[in-house]
Amino acid sequence: MSTQSTATTDKKDAVSTSRSAPINAKLNAEERIELYRKMVRIRRFEERSLRSYQAKNSAGGTNIGGFLHLYIGQEAVAVGCCSLMGKNDHVITAYRDHGHAIAVGMDTKPLMAELYGKITGCSKGKGGSMHYFDPSRNYWGGHGIVGGQIPLGTGLAYAVKYKGLKGAAMAFMGDGAVNQGAVHEAYNLAALWNLPVIFVIENNGYSMGTSQARSSAGELARRADAYDMAWDVINGHDLYEVRDKMDTLLTRAREQSLPAVVEIKTYRYRGHSVADPDKTYRNKTEIEEYQRTKDPITLFQEMLVAENVLTPELIEKINTEARAEADQAADFADASPYPTVEDIQKDVYWEIDNPSERKSQGRLFFD
Amino acid sequence: MPQITYREAIRHALADELTRDENVVVLGEEVANFHGAYKVTEGLLEKFGPKRIVDTPISEAGFIGMGVGASMLGIRPVMELMFWSFYSVAFDQILNNAANVRYMSGGQICCPIVIRGPANGGTNVGATHSHTPENVLANHPGVKVVVPSTAYDAKGLLKSAIRDNDPVFFLENTILYGEKGEVPDEEYLIPLGKADVKREGTDLTIVTYGRSVIHSLKAAEVLEKEHDISVEIVDLRTIRPLDIDTVLASVKKTNRVLIVEEQKPFASVGSQLSHMIQREAFDHLDGPIHRLATVDAPAIYSPPVEVEQLPNPNRIIKAAIEAVA
Amino acid sequence: MAQIIEMPKLSDTMTVGTLVKWLKKEGDVITAGTMLAEVETDKATMELECFYDGTLLKIFAPAGTQLAIGAPLCAVGKPGENVEAPAGKPASPAAAKEEPKKDAPKSESAPAPAKAPESVPQPETKPAAAAHSAPARADGERVKISPLAKKLAAEKGIDPSRVTGSGPGGRIVRADVLAAEKSGSAKAGSAKPAATGAPSTPFTGGAVSRTGPIQEERAVPVSNMRAVIAKRMVESTTTIPYIYVDIEIDAEPLLAVRQQLNTGLEKEGVKLSVNDFVLKACAEALRRVPAVNSSWEGNQIRYFGAAHVAFAVALDDGLITPVVKDAHQKSVFQISIEAKALGKKAKDKKLAPAEYTGGTFCVSNLGMMGIPKFTAIINPPNSAILAVGAAVAKPVIKNGQIVSGQTMTVTLSGDHRVFDGAVGAQFLNALKTLIESPALLLV
Fold it and tell me: From start to end residue, where is composition biased (Low complexity) (chain C) (predicted)?
């Protein structure tokens, strides 16, 4: 790995040793294409969202407010991990959450509409970029505070175990989150009570503008040793490897109810957020080197071409469709209405939203 | 009617709900083997076993956050905070996650968690262990805040809290744990958001909650006997939702108000009440709204002085006489 | 169709950006993803990314300009394509500081003229304004009144400016309005007792130092009671045209009757004071000269049907005037019992507002302190006050002989707006008759 001090196999070619792993070997051509398509769809969606963020809208305002943390470059992590999910598996992540949302199967129209703050958004315009949710797909967000979602992910695993189900929770975080106290408290609980949770550190090398070397002592996943938890390091540019190693850990979690910490080495091509000038802490050649040699989409595309699964025509078709899908999502978002002022106080209390079942009395809202 | 302590009333509520709903689970520091730091959960481990009654490490952010996550999947954790004073170490989990997750998901997620424990001064444990954060908690839309003053109320309210689908924060009082009160054997529920007139009167309304209710009742006897002032006492019981209607009805009857709260005065529960009373019963006020809060400083250790820092019957009597001038 | 590249939003808080420098020049071939320029935002210097393939046809914004989001920067398209200069103004430097939103929805109505046209008729009255304004006293000072008392006064048709407040700082409270209603007046009284002043320096005996201070020099905040007294006395002396009338009364018969009664009824616990007789005499004199039992109400004079006689009680830090209600219907004994009880309550500061408001006439007696004669200040809204001096032993002429006698001088202060000197004289003569023939007071 070029910028990491830690050792993993340095892959220069587009051949994955994990390709023959059972979890990957059993994939048919259509399933492989679908994995590729998901990654492409994530990237095109995000590129389109960046354009929407930067452009003025028809009313002279801006389409997207607040922050926009792009996932471009990390697609193999979310797609690889979420492709392994069973009915009782759950996902929770931080604020760079668009990739996971698409990876678990959410429709891009409400995702884009959420960025636009529209009532048709996946969170009705109440969450924004950092707060995507879809409980129906076992996707529990989208959380804005670094490391704050990790105890929640541990709780998902606790609930799965409490209910006697065979399942696991994947709690994603960035490399910056490993230094948060709540993360360590969650590690201890998971290890102490053998909860089926995989703590996934998506290590893109930088917590905002601070490199791992300047922020975190020691090797990130190795901190699991202190809690007697299993840990592993994965090359996150290789979709096959992500699926292979995560499958091992997920199976162990489901079958034996054991937690693990995994560090997936990845890279983001864009700034921490769109407001990040991106050159105070890393140089362009580093980014270009990654794009040239380690782009997860390019690598997987080359492998699928070599496997005779993908053709140039199909690649073009998939990309064109993904662009069109992203444009349609933007059009849908643009055409959708904003929430009304009356909507502000909906979705605050379950009781208020279900008035016929309200048991409490008194005033719940104040002015 | 049997007389049981406030502590036992809470325990009975927990036992009832653990029996009724298998998704109810009690977690917290020292709740199982140790029988509870204040013995509230004594006997529950023997009755319900280690799956339902769980000792946690001392890591509030971790275990409260875990409870929040579990509640999203339909578990109903009743988490004990050994002291509500420790809410600050789990602030992000309590007031960013539990309070906001329903809203940020556009109503897709429920968070039926109860966090309970004592929140009071008066036991000479110093500033770090004497916080009364009901105002801070109630400042967050999406949460409910309950502060019971009697054994009867504690049981009925906790049962309602456990069945509620929103996060409920239940603030008890270590000094009240040993106080006995009449609690019927048969099941009953007290809805959240329903205040209780603990005493009828004509000259002055005292709006209060928690242990200050007990102090106010004592003060009211003296005010009646020695000063010919007839006091009505409204026990809020729940801070959010707030039963302002019962408060206003009493104010319209007596025309004078004294708010008594074991709270630091700035931006307290009483501040909010004052605003609402003057806004909604202005023409019924025959004098300004008075308030008795804790003396505005961190909780002092010195035992006899701490008594004077908090509301107490003598301070209430003095404040009441001023309020009817 | 060439693509117009606009100033992008490059941070969550950016409103304007400065085009620092162009990285490409007109004519350069561009592929999607190429960086066109450097833009400085409020947070950092960022690169402007092109999302299109083509040729940089035209640069609209030179380096160094500051532009708002959406301002056209350049055009990218096919070589040789005609570039439409973007509609609207050419790029102009945007204001660096936040300005009020210019794109707020336009109001439908025409802009308001700077000055209202002269011809617009003004409404005759300002409806409801009075309901919202605080009541004011004749002197323009704001009346302090509780919201409830204000509402009650409005309901009962009572003018708050004529009600005396018994609450803190002289605030009119519910009880004051009810008392005013009961007495059918707007009412006199005085404030709630406040804390006593600091004690004077103790007398240490021995020679008084000629250089020492007579007391510690200090500034004491004005108590509520003193504030009320000050306010009402100033009001009284600045708004009432005074008339003073005094008369000497032979007090011997009264003193004799009092002696008889107190001796004869001592076992019954009867102990009548001179003042009890004076109060009764005043009530009877008011019955005979009722014009004095009245009040100035600006555009009308109110004549009271009952004699509610107030009497001043000195307190450590001021005074208060409890009222003997319906004194014209009570015996000297009843008045004595009531006055004693009221006096004690006054000293103990236990008087209820109803007990010190609603008087129609007032008596101030300094006789017990040896003062032979003084004038008192009217307690508004009364129209009169009687100042009672001590019974003084001095030579008097009886049946042409100079003999020793007991003489009491009383002074009536009257509101000349309400009655004139002759009425005052009639009242004092009636009073003199009653006191000099005290048997009249016992039937």
Answer: 84-95, 107-119, 128-137, 184-202
- Write the Ramachandran bin of B123: left for phi over 0, alpha for psi from -120 to 50, otherwise beta: alpha
Active site residues of C: 416
Task: Kindly state the helix (H) or strand (E) to which residue C393 belongs, with its residue range.
Answer: strand C384-398
- CA-angle at C155, arms to C153 and C160, nearest 5°: 15
User: Residue C135: its pLDDT value, please?
Assistant: 59
Per-residue pLDDT tens over the stretch B10-28: 999 999 999 999 999 999 9
Q: How far apart are CA C290 and CA C292, in angstroms?
A: 5
Q: B287 touching C, CB under 8 A?
A: yes
| pLDDT digits 0-9 by tens, B196-226 | 999 999 999 999 999 999 999 999 999 999 9
pLDDT at C140: 59
Percent of chain C past pLDDT 70, that is, above it, reads: 81
> What is the extent of the structural domain holding B303?
196-324
Is any Cβ of chain C less than 8 angstroms from the Cβ of A62?
A: yes
Partners of A61 on chain C (C-beta within 8 Å) are 103
Chain A residues with CB-CB distance to C14 below 8 A: 275
Q: Tell which of B134, B151, B182 closes a domain.
A: B182
Kindly report the CA angle at A129 between A123 and A135, in degrees rounded to 5?
40
Check residue C203 and give its pLDDT: 47
User: What's the rounded mean pLDDT across residues C333-349?
Assistant: 89
To which residue do tokens 């305002």 refer?
A61
Contact A351 B164 (CB under 8 A): yes
- In the sheet where C29-30 sits, what is the strand order? C3-6, C72-77, C54-59, C29-30
Residue C9 has pLDDT above 60, yes or no: yes
Is the pLDDT at C8 greater than 80, yes or no?
A: yes
Domain span at A265 = 11-357
Q: By the 8 A CB rule, do C323 and C358 touch? A: yes
pLDDT of residue A16: 85
Q: Would you say residue A23 has pLDDT above 90?
A: yes
Helices marked H in chain A: 22-25, 29-54, 75-82, 98-103, 108-115, 149-162, 181-192, 212-215, 239-256, 284-293, 296-306, 312-335, 350-353
Q: Would you say residue C128 has pLDDT above 70? A: no
**What pLDDT, on the 0 to 100 scale, is given for residue C137?**
61
d(CA A184, CA A158): 16
Where is the domain boundary, B130, B154, B182? B182
- Closest C-alpha among B119, B127, B99, B244 to residue B170: B119
Smallest CA–CA distance, residue B185 to chain A, in Å, is 22
C8 touches chain A (CB under 8 A): yes
Chains touching chain C at 3 or more Cβ pairs under 8 angstroms?
A, B
Distances from the Cα of C350 to the Cα of B205, B228, B258, B323, C168, angstroms:
22, 11, 22, 16, 15
Q: Considering the entire predicted model, what is its pTM?
A: 0.69
User: Chain A residues with CB inside 8 Å of C99's CB?
Assistant: none
Same domain, yes or no, for B78 and B172? Answer: yes
pLDDT surpasses 70 at C414: yes
Whether the CB of C20 is below 8 Å from some CB of chain A: the reply is no
Nearest CA in chain C to B289: C146
Q: How many domains are there within chain A?
A: 1
Mean residue pLDDT of chain A comes to 93
Which overall architecture, per CATH, does domain C3-77 show?
Answer: Beta Barrel (2.40)
Burial (Cβ within 10 Å: 0-12, 13-18, ≥19) of residue C212: exposed
Q: What is the phi/psi pair of residue C277, to 5°?
A: -65, -40
